[in-house]
């Protein structure tokens, strides 16, 4: 049977809206029913919190809740299947271990086992009530069948209707006891007394574990091999009661067996030198373990065994830290860190609000916050001298965490803090220490008084270290990004001054990755009697590329000002680039504008061809003569092409970021760009520029910088 039994109660598959009134577990019955229908072996129902965008696990089935501990509370915007299902109101299917690692790497880090998962919204046409996930062992096909899809969808729709009816009667369901199979019990439960005696006589060890990993039966051989009396094993987890098995790797094998429903095994060293083999045979009710001597094992890779006992909650701690590590590595800027802490950390520890504090110039600075109804409550601390006596300044200065389980505790130590009530009742102040120095403080606020036991304080302090590393990287990135934007702003023209008879507009968009600075440039040079325009792209996305771009742009202006012809400007710029010895290449398109006679003379150096929209709306790609990229051949020549510019014509000059991106055929991209230009070419030029960069598929992805320069002939100037 794929799902745990929910009992022999009549109508188990069809709970009604009156279930909550009669005390029947609405959510548990619905979950068990849908798992039975599709032969899933675990699952959970989440309900959307009433006052915050958070999904809370209401009931789980088939596997211990601890397996999903990092996701007991998840933000609605979190990148996990149940949140995605509720947020997008659609079924999310993960077909196996590789699919999980590719799409949801944070989950794969914590649960790197072969299993399939489906997550679905529990929603009516008007309201989202929550979400459901169910899982299958690794042997499940990588594709969800139509029958499974229809069955799960119908079950979630029925559950949503029942929740809607319950809400109308003010009987919204709450969390229910989890559905787990009953423990295996004593040896007598294995069969007859004689069968138990037979198992007891086996020459190898045999033990039975329930779904929580607790020993329900062990024969004499197992106790002898483990070196622990049978009475001391029963009811305990082996990695707790057997000191030399106290290693996360062994506990991981137990989880792997239950989640994948595959036979798993490992070897372990029993001090001082005995190697034992453990083979786990899983079912939906628990595990059977065969223990024997592993004489053929020559060596074992792993950490030395530890002798200290480990608290039962260690599994949750490891899972949380692994999951949140994956989340925080994705943060780029400081605001990304704040948002990720709000989406990932705060829900997982039950916090309702947070503040990230930093310091600069001897003063406290609020780097970001989330969850406060009145932002002024937090922002009034911005600029506070570090000498002021507040919990935020104290933790930031000393690097020592502080936990306040109630407002009374906080008021006792910081009486002035009560003058600025924020509506919360408990706080955790976590020092953010990276590279041996404090970089900030993370303040987690709780709506109700909150006890911080020792293990939770350890978890929160560990999370503070992870947040600190992410914050340090983010602050460095923001500083570099600010420098890059400043440099880019200096190197690109602040405004365009087109000659009479020409209208101009330009746009520059940085790439979405990296430092957001590159070598794309454009310029409009208002020389008399003929003006000039140029667009180009220096290879690379760094300060060197941007600096070289500035030198090229300055050189083009100088060569134009002294009266060189277009082909001479290109030759001179090419020699300049080679003389600079930068070992970077550049593409370039240069044109001399003659609006009085309705023409332009163009020279091209390895640059994408421009587009010309005629007054009748027809668009063509200009096939211009050209030479090689600038910076390759000092003797290169750059022939020119004359193009007629009738009044109302629009020239579109662009860099390759507008039309090139992975998976996009450049010819198709040019066709699409031409159609867009044809349909919208009569728009005001600034609006047309926005339209081209907004609707270009490549520009939306922006793996490269995008520069666009538009010129329309026939304007009054």
Describe this entry's structure for a reader.
The protein is an alpha+beta fold and about 725 residues long. It is about 35% helix and about 25% strand. The strands form 5 sheets. Strands 3-2-1-6-5-4 form a 6-stranded antiparallel β-sheet. A hairpin with a 5-residue loop joins strand 1 and strand 2. Helix 13 packs antiparallel against helix 17. The longest helix has about 40 residues.
Beta strand %: 15-25%
Helical content stands at 25-40%
Number of beta strands: 26
The termini sit apart by: 80 Å
Largest sheet: 6 strands, antiparallel
Tally of separate helices: 22
* Strand arrangement, major sheet: 3-2-1-6-5-4
Radius of gyration: 34 Å
Which descriptors would you attach to this protein?
single chain; 717 residues; alpha+beta; six-stranded antiparallel sheet; five-stranded antiparallel sheet; 26 strands; 24% strand; elongated
